[in-house]
C-alpha cells in the first residue's frame, strides 16, 4: 500500500518505520530537516512514566502509556542507533512544606492507576539512600516506580530519520504542507511551492503535523513548555526525579556527560519567545532544592516549544475516508507514541472494521469545530 505521512515528529517517524518494515511504500513530508527542527518532539524530555504521572491522567492516556512502556524495549532494538534508553525507574519526592500536596498526589495515583507493588513502592530514607545516596540528605521518603524509563528525543529523532533514509523511504524535507485531504478512495498531501501547489496522491494518508494541522483541526491549541539543560559534574543522580512544586511537577532527567534536563513549565499560552525569568528561577531553584550540587551547574541551553492539545487534553485519531489525523498528544508524545503508532498501522491494514482495544482513541465524528 502507498502511504503518505504529513508531519515527521515522533509519531510520523515511528509510524513510517513500522509501516516500512511491514512492506508498505511510505513517503514522509515535513517542514523541517531530517536531524533538527522546530517540532516539539525535539524539545521533549522523553519520559516514559505512566504511573508517576497518573495523578492527572485520563484512563485512555494511562492505558496508552502502559502499553507503550512495554513496547519501547522492543522498538529500541529495532532502531539502528543509540537513543540512550534508561530503565532505572523514577522517584517522586517532596520537601516537608509540600507534604500535603505529596499526600494528595499519592492518593490520586493510587486511585487512578491502582499500581501493584511492582509498579510503585514507598521508600524510607534508608532505602532511598541505597538507590540514590545524594538525595537521602534532603528527603526522608520517596515514591519509587521501578518499571518506568526514559530516552533521549534529541537522539531518537535523527536516528529514526537516518534509518528511514537508509531504507530508501522518500523523505521530503522543508516542505510547506498546505493541506491533507482525502475521500473513500485515497488521500492527498498538498505541498505549497514557489510555482504553486503540488498534490501527492496515496492509498492512505496519516496527518501527524501537530499544530501544523490547524486548517483541519482548528480547535487545537498550543501549550507552552520550557526546559533548561545544565551540566552538573557535582551531581550524581541516576534516576528520573520528580519534585512536588506549588505550580508544576518539576522533573530532573539525567543525560550523559553530567548533563541534566530540568523541566517543565506548563503555561496556557502560544508565546514561542525565550524562557521567562520567572520560569528560569522556578526551575533552577527547584533543582537546587533537590541537590546542592546544582548551584555550580552551568546552563548549557534553554528550550521553549508548544505542545499540541485538544480541548480535553486527550489524543485522538480522526478517521475520514482514507485520511487518519492523529493529534492532541499534549505533554505525552513519547510516552504514548508506540501504542498510537501500532493502532495506526492496524487501522490502515484492517480498515474500518478494525476493533481497537482503545476504542475511545478513534472517532469518525467531529466533536471539535472544524475537525
UniProtKB/TrEMBL annotation:
Gene3D superfamilies in alphabetical order: D-Amino Acid Oxidase, subunit A, domain 2 (3.30.9.10), FAD/NAD(P)-binding domain (3.50.50.60)
GO biological process: D-amino acid metabolic process; thiamine biosynthetic process; thiamine diphosphate biosynthetic process
Enzyme Commission number(s) of this protein: 1.4.3.3
Catalytic activity of the protein: a D-alpha-amino acid + O2 + H2O = a 2-oxocarboxylate + H2O2 + NH4(+)
Protein's pathway: Cofactor biosynthesis; thiamine diphosphate biosynthesis
MF GO annotations: D-amino-acid oxidase activity; FAD binding
Organism: Sinobacterium caligoides
Protein name (record): D-amino-acid oxidase
Cofactor list: FAD
Family to which the UniProt record says this protein belongs: Belongs to the DAMOX/DASOX family.
Keywords from the UniProt entry: FAD, Flavoprotein, Oxidoreductase, Thiamine biosynthesis
FAD dependent oxidoreductase domain sequence ranges: 3-346
Amino acid at each position: 500500500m502507498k502511504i503518505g505521512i504529513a508531519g515527521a515528529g515522533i509519531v510520523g517517524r515511528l509510524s513510517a518505520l513500522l509501516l516500512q518494515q511491514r512492506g508498505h511504500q511510505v513517503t514522509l513530508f515535513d517542514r523541517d530537516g531530517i536531524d533538527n527542527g522546530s517540532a516539539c518532539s525535539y524539545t521533549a524530555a522523553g519520559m516514559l512514566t505512566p504511573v508517576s504521572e497518573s495523578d492527572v491522567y485520563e484512563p485512555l492516556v494511562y492505558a496508552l502509556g502502559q502499553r507503550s512502556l512495554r513496547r519501547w524495549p522492543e522498538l529500541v532494538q529495532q532502531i539502528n542507533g543509540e537513543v540512550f534508553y534508561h530503565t532505572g525507574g523514577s522517584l517522586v519526592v517532596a520537601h516537608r512544606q509540600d507534604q500535603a500536596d505529596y499526600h494528595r498526589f499519592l492518593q490520586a495515583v493510587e486511585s487512578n492507576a491502582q499500581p501493584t507493588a511492582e509498579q510503585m513502592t514507598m521508600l524510607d530514607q534508608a532505602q532511598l539512600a541505597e538507590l540514590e545516596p545524594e538525595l537521602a540528605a534532603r528527603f526522608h521518603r520517596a515514591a519509587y516506580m521501578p518499571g518506568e524509563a526514559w530516552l533521549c528525543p534529541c537522539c531518537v529523532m535523527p536516528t529514526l530519520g537516518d534509518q528511514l533514509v537508509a531504507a530508501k523511504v522518500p523523505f521530503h524535507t522543508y516542505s510547506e504542507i498546505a493541506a491533507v485531504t482525502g475521500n473513500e478512495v485515497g488521500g492527498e498531501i498538498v505541498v505549497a511551492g514557489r510555482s504553486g501547489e503540488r498534490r501527492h496522491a496515496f492509498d492512505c494518508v496519516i496527518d501527524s503535523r501537530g499544530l501544523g494541522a490547524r486548517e483541519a483541526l482548528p480547535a487545537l491549541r498550543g501549550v507552552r513548555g520550557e526546559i533548561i539543560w545544565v551540566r552538573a559534574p557535582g551531581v550524581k543522580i541516576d534516576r528520573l526525579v520528580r519534585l512536588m512544586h506549588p505550580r508544576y511537577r518539576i522533573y530532573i532527567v539525567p543525560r550523559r556527560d553530567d548533563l541534566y534536563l530540568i523541566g517543565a513549565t506548563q503555561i496556557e499560552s502560544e508565546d514561542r519567545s525565550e524562557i521567562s525569568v520567572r520560569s528560569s528561577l522556578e526551575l533552577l531553584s527547584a533543582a537546587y532544592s533537590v541537590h546542592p550540587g546544582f548551584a555550580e551547574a552551568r546552563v548549557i541551553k534553554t528550550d521553549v516549544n508548544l505542545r499540541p492539545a485538544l480541548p480535553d487534553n486527550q489524543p485522538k485519531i480522526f478517521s475520514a475516508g482514507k485520511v487518519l489525523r492523529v493529534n492532541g498528544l499534549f505533554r505525552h508524545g513519547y510516552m504514548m507514541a508506540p501504542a498510537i503508532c501500532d493502532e495506526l498501522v492496524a487501522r490502515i491494514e484492517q480498515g474500518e472494521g478494525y476493533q481497537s482495544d482503545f476504542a475511545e482513541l478513534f472517532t469518525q465524528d467531529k466533536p471539535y469545530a472544524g475537525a
